[in-house]
Amino acid sequence: MANVPDNLHYSKDHEWVRVDGDTAVIGITDHAQEQLGDVVYVELPKAGEEFGAHDSFGSVESVKAVSEIFTPISGKVAEVNQSLADEPEKVNKDPYGEGWMIKMKMSKSGEVDSLLTAAEYEDFTKAESE
Amino acid sequence: MTAPALELRKTALNDVHRAMGGRMVEFGGWDMPVQYPAGTMTEHLGTRTHAGLFDVSHMGEIDVRGADAIPFVNRVTSNDTTKLIDGQAQYSALTTPEGTVIDDLLVYRMASDHLLLIVNAGTTDKDWDWIKSHYQNENVELQNVSADYCQIALQGPDAISILQKLTDVPLAEIKYYHFQEGDVDGVPSIVSRTGYTGEDGFEVYAAPDKAEQLWKKILDAGNFGGDDGVLPCGLAARNTLRLEAGMCLYGHEIDETTTLLEANLGWIAKLNKTDFIGREALAKQKEAGIRRKLVGFEVTDRGIARDGQNVFINGQCNGNVTSGSPAPFLKKNIGMAYVPVEFAKAGQRVEIDVRGKLLGAEIVPLPFYKRAK
């Protein structure tokens, strides 16, 4: 079973959010990386770019497929995980840690509350695979 | 995830794939494993360095028997069937009157009055109808025997030593593109030194009710207790392996809009043999010269080209990518594309439109990968 840490918020597009003050750290879930297979390329935005909630902010590519990645919340990109350019496999090995993708300065503080909890996300992925 | 359509066909190994953790997808109307838990990268590299095992039972088989088996197949396929000897296989194509491709296939000469045609899964029904519709009172009996065979491909440098543990057939004596009939683990089989990976290896054809036995015995015979053993592989690795080896995939590099000459398959278009469907069109095209040609390219910018993306040369859209993917062994991003013949030369710069962004790429000679002999 895929790992779903309790302390994170989740989107139905299989991203996770870790709130740290007014900053949101964003990546893709363990379930998402399992479904994708070996990640070979990650395309990310530049710091300073602004996104609304559910905007496409980049893509993750496995050998076989391209998946768009979406911002669970709105805000401005503060930092991008540059190390993924040379080590995209971090997304597979440590999706909630070294495989993080972007940090965003949140523009609407209440938005994270509309995301799924760990338990809700687990139910969601189960229902989706049935 | 969407539920697979109910009418997907299953090979005899479907339950085995699921039990072994294969991720199942639809391919050519079949429910097939796209990858195993090891993942496409590992499966691909394992096949290049040790051995990979592939269920290719979805491929179709058409039996042609009778005194006119050879002249009949010689008329509906582009390669020269009369050149085959018993126990030899040949890469060939079913061609339209325009010289385009109904399907690519293998022709096995079982006997002077018996040929077995191995065709693609998604085109089996189309091929069968096409072949039957071109029957002209020759003394042949045609039979679609796809349900009578499983096909298991063992590929890679260790394939021969692994398979030899299970059979008395002297594998080293079988030359490339030849086969022998014999028992594998006691199961009557056709053992063919062919494949679709660019590696040495074998394709084993047997009765479907023996598929599970063969699959498991080959995995056991190739398990050396470490990470140097045989790996079950899915269709994703099969695709990246054939792409590195510069081989055409039906529906991508070749179809009913591409001619054999454009696809660099002139070597299977034997224009000087007796007449075959498409010969005249191909002879004319050869004389006039082709306008576009299939080439290989390497992406030189960061990013991955994918099937269907447009190719730009000197700012003009001039073709499209037929297959594009990371190449796990070469550690490059590669692909094949049709481009106007005047640009079809190594070193030519092109650009690929990857979701709105133009990535630089360079035409390189095919194949991308060639194993050391």
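The longest strand of chain B covers residues 316-327.
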